[in-house]
Design brief:
Blueprint lengths: L6 H19 L14 H6 L1 H12 L2 H11 L1
């Protein structure tokens, strides 16, 4: 039981706690991949739908024609 009261034991425990704290705070995996940005092709491909929605906002009477053509 004298080992638990010695300076060597205290130093060993402090070193274990120190390295445990360092490994717990270290970020081992670097996340370089952020949110996916749309490509130009994907953006241009949605232009027709965006144009229809904007057209319906400013000219609501044209929306009925769009709805009828989509039902077919």
């Amino acid at each position: 039981m004298e080992f638990f009261n010695s300076k060597k034991f205290i130093i060993v425990i402090i070193l274990v706690l120190f390295f445990t704290a360092l490994s717990g705070c270290a970020k081992t995996v670097i996340e370089t991949q952020g949110p996916k940005q749309p490509t130009t092709l994907e953006t241009v491909g949605k232009m027709k739908g965006i144009g229809i929605v904007i057209g319906c906002m400013f000219a609501p009477h044209t929306c009925d024609e769009v709805k009828e053509s989509k039902d077919d």
